[in-house]
Amino acid sequence: MVYLVGAGPGDPGLITARGLDCLRCAEVVVYDYLANPVFLDEVPAGAERIYVGKTCGCHHTPQERINRLLVDRARAGKRVVRLKGGDPFIFGRGGEEAQALFEAGIPFEVVPGVTAGFAAAAYAGIPLTHRDHTTSLGLFTGHEKPEKKLSSLDWEKLATGIGTLVFYMGMTNLPVICEQMMRHGRSPQTPVAVIRWATTPRQQVVEGTLESIVDEVARAGLRPPAVIIVGEVVGLRRQLRWFEDRPLLGRRILVTRAAGGAGDFGRLLEQRGAEAVLCPVIAFADPADFAPLDAAIEALAGYDDLVLTSANAVARFFDRLRRLGRDLRALGGVRVVAVGPKTAKALEERGILADLVPADSRAEGVVAELLAAGVAGRRILYPRAELARTVIPDELGKAGASVDAPVLYRTLPDAEGTARLQQALAGGLDAVTFTSSSTVVNLFELADDDQRRQLATLPLFSIGPETSRTLRRLGLPIAGEAKSSTLEGLAEAVTAYFSG
User: Does 87 participate in catalysis according to the annotation?
Assistant: First the structure.
C-alpha cells in the first residue's frame, strides 16, 4: 500500500490528522525537499527513510526512479508513505505517481495537504478572494524554461479575466510574468506579493506592483522557494497581516530539553514565531537497581504522601506501579503532591487529581507548602531522579517527617546530542534555553572548545534559580530567567528579552 501524503507548506501544525496517522504506521517514507524534516520524528524508529528531494537546477532523483521506488517497496509488502510538500495533486506530480501505481496494480490512497499558495496567502494576511475585490482565483506554475516565456499560458485571458493569480515556482520567470501581464492589459499598478518560506519562522514577504516588484525582489535578495500573488487583494495585507508581527519571528532558539518533552516547549516558542531547534542533551534511563523503588511501591499503603516532581516522574512511577501488578487503588488514602501544573496535568491523565500543587514550581515550593500543612510524624514517598537535589528529603526530615527517596530514573547524556549540536550551530542560533542543571552540564560536555566559545556568546536563558546557579558556576552570563519555573515562564523570558 502507498499513501501519497501532503505535508503542507512548512508549518508542521498544518499537516492533516490523517497524514500523521499514515506516518506513524509507515515502514518506508519517501520524502522531498519541501516537506518539513520534523515529520520524520513521527515515523517508527525502524522505518526506512529515503530522501528524493528536488530543487530547481538540481534534480536529486529523477521522477521515473521515484515512481519505480514506490512500486518496488510496495511490492515488497511494505506500507509506503510518499511525503510531499503542500498538496500531492497541486503541482506536486502526485498525479504521475498515482498513475504509475495504478499501472503497476499497487493500491494507493491520496491524503490532501494544505497547498503552498493558500497557506502563503493566509500567513501573509492576503485573502485570495474577497467580495469587495474579486471572486475569481487561478493557480499556475511559473516553472518553465525562460526561453519558453511561459508559452503554455493564455496571457490575454489571464491578465484581465481572473481577479487573483497565484504562481508557484515562478521566481526565475518573475520578469516574464510581470511583462506579460502588463502587455496583455493588466494595470502596472496591480499589487503583487512574493512570499518566501511561507508559514515558517523564515517567512519573508516583499510587496510591490507589476511595474516595481522585480526591482523590489532584487533589492531584498529574495530567492526561491517562493509564491507570487497578483491581484488587488494583496493590498489588504496592510490590515490583515498577523504572522509576521509575532515577537520571536525569525529567531532560531536551541531547545536542550529531553526528547520526550522538547516538543512541548518547542511549540510554545513556535507560537511566538520562533524556529525551535531541538537538541535534546539528556536522556532518561531506568535506575541501576529497582529494588528500593519496588519495595516502596509494595508498601504504598503505609505512606501518607506521594511527591512527584515532573511529568516524566509521573509516567515512570505509574508504569512501574502497573508492572508490579498494582493500579490506582494502591494510592487509596495517600495525599498526592505535584510540583507544578505540568506534573498535575500528567497525573490527571493517569486518573489522579493532585491534592496539592504549590504555586512555586520548585523543590522549595513543595517544601514550603508541606511545612505549612504540617509534616511531623508523616511518612513521605519521594521517587526521584538519581542526581536530584536533596532539598525535599533534607528539609522535610528536619521538620519531623520520615522521607523515603528511592531512585526512579537516571539522566544520561543523549547519544545524538553531539551531531544535533553541530547541525544547530551550523545553521546559526539566536539563543539557547535550559530547563534544568543537567541540560547545562550535558550541553557543555558535549560541545568542543570552539562550540563552547560559540555558545557563550549567545543569550542564555534559564528556567529557574538552580539552573541559573549552574550557569554561573561555569562562568556563563544569563540573559534571562523565568519568573515562574515553568516552560511557559521560560518562553516568556525569551520573548521579553527579544522584545526589548
Answer: no
